[in-house]
Amino acid sequence: MRRIAPLVLAVVATLVAGRAMARAALPARVDVRAQSVQLYLTQPALLTAAGGATAAFGGYLLAAGALRYDLGRNRVVASGGVALGDRTGGIRGAACALDLDSGKGTLLRLDGALPATYAFDLQHPQSLAASPPEPGVFETQETGGLRPFVAGKHAVVAPNANVRFSNARVTTETGLSLPSPSYLYTFAANPAFAQSSLPGTTFDQPYALAGNGDSLLAAHVRYDATAGRPTLGLDGHLVDQSRGYLIASALPTTLGVRFDLAGYRQLTPTLAESLNAATGAGLGYALYQLQKTNAATTTTLLLSQQGGLQTADLRLSTLNRAIGRAGYVKFAFDLGYDHEPGMQPYPQDARASLEGHYVTPNLTGPFGTTLSGSFDYAATLFDFPRERGSSREYASASRRITRTLGLFGSVQYLQTFDRYGQNESTYYPTTPPLLPNGLFYYGYSAFAGAATYRTYALQATYAPSPALNLVVNLVREKDWPQYDGYGLPQQSAGFDLRLRAPGGPTFEVGRTFIFGWGGKQWSPAYTFSVAP
Amino acid sequence: MRAIAFALALALGAAAPAAPAAADEPLVVRGTVLTVDASYLVFTTGDAVRLGNFCVDRKRAWLGTDVLVVLDPATHAVTKLAVDPGPRRPEEIDASALPRAYVAVDPATAQTAPASRSGGAIGGIVTVTISVSVPVDTPPSDDVYLATDRTNFSPAELRMNRVDAHRWTVSLDLPAAATLRYLFTRGSYATVERSQSGAIAVPRTLSPATARRVDDAVARWADST
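^ inputs. structure came back:
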């Protein structure tokens, strides 16, 4: 009993301490009301309330003429007839700053002979101690020149997770403000919330429906230029701090509803697993990966099923290793097994792959240029008579002309081959295809699985300020096989312009001219994006 | 004792950075308002200045409002006030550099030094340049993007500019008081950066008030095998 007593006492003391601290712990929700409640997407996000502002949290009520709630730091600054307290009493002042995490605050009073500040603790708010304010305690993010993202009269904050407005007006990326009976803005710090299992599309506007610090359910209003119609998707996130996430989504398509799943979990500091799967709308695949990373190598187990094809791979690769000052090398070895019932002539096949990668260090070239090069080689040998592989030589030169203008040029030669030995003609028939101009492409008759892709690219970047950024690309593709409309355009010239109006968002627009390739002068569409 | 502390505060105030205005010239101060009452205007630095006979609209929600005030050199009281002033002018000083003699404060809570937290740069917009070195096995045709908490880490938020084969850079205008959290990607979350061991990378943090240029390095990408 004597041995147990100290342990029991320690446990009780811990529980008591825990209860004592519970009052000061971060509240589960903060209910903010005012004549005007606005959300600004500053860094971090800021909630402002003006005109009879109140914030109710954890049994306390903070009333003031105006308040500002730093959602990233869980700090509230209030001013104008401030009253803070609970049922047992409270304090009054001209302004106050309160850290919701610690429950500690600073009160400014102007009702004495001179302005004075006092430190207080939410647990004993009446115990004021005259004290100079901590540096920056009353400061919050600036909002001058910014438009509020959401505006309303009532918002409920779930600290470190989200804020839900009721009867709000939401500013869209187009600048239009739309009414919304309820709007949930998630500012949870976990970047896994940005992960999506929905397929890529032309436009995607998420609309959060429900969530907390570890979960989020969102609708997605989407427009796919290829399908030419708007769709409404749904996805749900579960995140486990930085250890993992699981995302499921549903999206109606012309072929039915498509369901996607994406997950990742860190099992140990060096062992992780991931899963990606999709079903419906003519799709059916799953890919599972287990990866172990050591100081010098990465070992990966890959299991996949796509339709009737099942594959398994065990891959061992080195990390990028420096070889003195001569550059970097990386090697990989992969053993794989494919199984596809009913596939002829062999329903199963084993294969082995070897890959090598060499990169030069950055070298100083003539005319103030910086030079770099790399060489890659990969080959796969199948049990069934087949060999497949590629080699790539890449060289680049860059030069900064002025502080605002830079040039980057590159040359890439990529060769691929896919040989079936005596069965070559079965897989690569020599029937010449018909060109868009009505002629046959006779040169294609020589194609037997080996191809060459040569890319010459020149890029100029003009970036005088964050408000203006222009990138111009000139590219020449000299490939084989490549013919009118098939493969990449032989010449292309593109631009990407980023502009930001003072105090406004950044607009980015880009397009590529392809010099009549396949009867078209321009790439199919503009690229357009808006960023803060 | 309080009198001694007050005298000490005033003496130290004399040693504070000199305002550009001469002793007999009005002092022009730019700052952000915490609160206003009948007698005082208080900046978010915590420093109060006397309003004297100057009247302000006390019904207005002053919290967070940028102002320019003119202080009388003799009475130290406000003689003029402008809301949301335009570009900064040379004769202005920041509220964080307000000479202590102008500050109305109870000696018991007197600050003995200017309240400056960031050399006066807490306000305004500053340009920050982020550069990054990417792993040498990064596909050469891929672009590198910055994903920040401004967009809840949208993976293709801002395309960076290529410097050479392995380095990228981008400049951003950010509020000086902001804290930016960011990650590097190759345009999608499947190609977001990871730690050397392959674990989910913790977003980097940048405070423009303390760093205008940062050089980062990506250890590996999520799709590295």
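The CA atoms of residues 225 and 354 of chain A lie 40 Å apart. Residues 1-23 of chain A have pLDDT under 50 and may be disordered.
thumbs up if we can close this ticket
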